[in-house]
């Protein structure tokens, strides 16, 4: 892809779009499939950098993952890690780093996980402490609570652990995914606020779909009894996070957008983004597996986006074109993503003339004397896709390093520019 893409203005978008499969669901399903008893076939799985990294790492651990015409086949090993030593490179994939740090704890040997320079700045200490309390020798090699990570595994004993939920829900998901294969029942107690709770609910739903239920009799206390996932065919729904950019495009231009494969039955928290647009004045209609947004945005809103922090860049871009201010809070964990998204968004919004204020845990955004500029994307797919929205109505918006969207949506600009 070229180094810079300029976004053409659009007066009114009217389209129907089929969104590629969910990255979050695909990577969870890959881990569950690898642990399952029997083969698993994934249909509508997402082909992107994050899933490619996950597949490559699973293969380096000795698992067999085979793409085919009917889907992606994973040969489950019933809770066993085939190889007793591996050095895994997770690039900038947070799900791969966190989930596989948990996965290799079921093995018998020594495993090392490393990633990109940014990944080496992203904290993982809470997960390591959780694994240690469950009887696993897991540590940050540099002693700073960040990757690279080494796990010296001798199986998972189980028992009780406390886990902070304030930085990433992926730490809890990493423990939940492997807990059915502990020697005894495991109980995980969340300490503090649990961010991105819908992603945990997604994990629980998928575990149940593969035959391993979790009890949560007290909010934030999860009990998992020993059992085995069962391999099966599993359909991956469209990625609700990716769908948000297309829904917002319709609202920004006063048009209409129908997403054909994300609807009321979605297990993704980000499927709730359409309701934010509705609060801003757009019309929203939904069916079991579709969502349609039409009309215009007429007001700013104040919202706590702790349940769907990945939607902050999308909402901030939409807020440029509404009367009044939009206030987003309770998303301090965005500072630990592919970049510090709060700082990056505030910086780039000001660059195009918007009135934007960075809060310790959020953003305040309203319009301004908006004008074109070259947008720095910080190697962050969500920054690139969000500012593509701004270009629909602001002449001269140019996106640097558009190829960064390959992390979760390689064909984004092809699809977006074709609207």
Word description of this protein:
The chain is α/β, with parallel strands linked by helices and 419 residues long. The protein folds into 2 domains: 198 residues, Enolpyruvate transferase domain (UDP-n-acetylglucosamine1-carboxyvinyl-transferase, Chain, Alpha-beta prism), CATH 3.65.10.10; 213 residues, UDP-n-acetylglucosamine1-carboxyvinyl-transferase, Chain, CATH 3.65.10.10. It is 29% helix and 26% strand. It is built from 12 helices and 23 strands. A 4-stranded mixed beta sheet has the order 2-15-17-16, covered by helices on one side. A 4-stranded mixed beta sheet has the order 4-5-3-14. The chain is globular. The model has no long low-confidence stretch (mean pLDDT 97).
Oligomer: single chain
Outline, from the CA principal axes? globular
Q: Please state the average pLDDT score.
A: 97
Strand runs, count: 23
Can you tell me the residue ranges where pLDDT is under 50 for at least 5 consecutive residues? Answer: none
Sheet having the most strands:
4 strands, mixed
CATH superfamily of the largest domain: Enolpyruvate transferase domain
CATH architecture of the largest domain: Alpha-beta prism
Explain the layout of strands and helices:
Blueprint: E1 4-6, E2 14-17, H1 23-35, E3 39-43, H2 49-60, E4 65-68, E5 71-75, E6 85-89, H3 94-103, E7 108-114, H4 125-133, E8 137-140, E9 149-154, E10 159-164, H5 170-178, E11 186-191, H6 197-209, E12 215-218, E13 221-224, E14 233-235, H7 240-253, E15 256-259, H8 273-279, E16 283-287, E17 290-294, E18 302-304, H9 312-319, E19 326-329, H10 341-351, E20 354-359, E21 362-368, E22 373-375, H11 381-390, E23 397-400, H12 412-417
Parallel strand pairs: 2-15, 3-14, 6-7, 10-11, 18-19, 22-23
Antiparallel strand pairs: 1-23, 3-5, 4-5, 7-9, 8-9, 11-13, 12-13, 15-17, 16-17, 19-21, 20-21
């Amino acid at each position: 892809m070229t180094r810079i893409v300029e976004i053409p203005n659009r007066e009114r978008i009217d389209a129907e779009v089929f969104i590629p499969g969910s990255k979050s669901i695909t990577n969870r399903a890959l881990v569950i499939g690898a642990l399952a008893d029997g083969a698993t076939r994934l249909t509508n799985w997402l082909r992107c950098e994050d899933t490619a990294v996950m597949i490559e790492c699973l293969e380096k651990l000795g698992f067999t993952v085979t793409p085919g015409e009917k889907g992606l086949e994973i040969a489950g090993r019933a809770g066993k890690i085939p190889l007793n030593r591996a050095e895994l490179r997770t690039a900038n994939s947070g799900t791969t780093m966190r989930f596989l740090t948990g996965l290799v704890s079921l093995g018998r040997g020594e495993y090392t996980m490393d990633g990109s320079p940014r990944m080496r700045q992203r904290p993982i200490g809470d997960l390591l402490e959780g694994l240690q309390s469950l009887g696993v020798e897991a540590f940050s090699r540099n002693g700073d609570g960040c990757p690279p990570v080494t796990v010296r595994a001798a199986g998972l004993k189980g028992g009780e652990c406390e886990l902070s939920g304030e930085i990433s829900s992926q730490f809890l998901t990493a423990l939940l995914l492997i807990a059915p294969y502990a020697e005894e029942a495991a109980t995980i107690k969340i300490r503090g606020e649990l961010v991105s709770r819908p992603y945990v609910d997604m994990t629980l739903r998928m575990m149940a779909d593969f035959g391993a239920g979790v009890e949560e009799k007290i909010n934030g206390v999860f009990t998992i009894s020993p059992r085995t996932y069962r391999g099966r065919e599993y359909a991956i729904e469209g990625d609700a996070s990716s769908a948000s950019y297309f829904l917002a495009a319709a609202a920004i231009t006063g048009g209409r957008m129908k997403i054909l494969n994300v609807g009321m039955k979605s297990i993704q928290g980000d499927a709730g983004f359409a309701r934010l647009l509705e609060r801003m004045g757009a019309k929203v209609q939904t069916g079991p597996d579709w969502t349609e947004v039409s009309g215009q945005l007429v007001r700013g809103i104040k919202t706590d986006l702790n349940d769907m922090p990945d939607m902050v860049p999308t909402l901030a871009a939409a807020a440029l074109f509404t009367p009044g201010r939009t206030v987003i809070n309770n998303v301090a964990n965005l500072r630990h993503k592919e970049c510090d998204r709060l700082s990056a968004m505030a910086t780039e919004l000001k660059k195009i003339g918007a009135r934007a204020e960075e809060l310790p845990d959020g953003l305040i955004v309203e319009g301004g004397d908006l004008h074109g500029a070259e947008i720095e994307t910080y190697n962050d797919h969500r920054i690139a896709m969000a500012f593509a929205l701004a270009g629909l109505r602001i002449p001269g918006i140019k996106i640097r390093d558009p190829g960064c969207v390959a992390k979760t949506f390689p064909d984004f600009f092809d699809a977006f520019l074709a609207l």
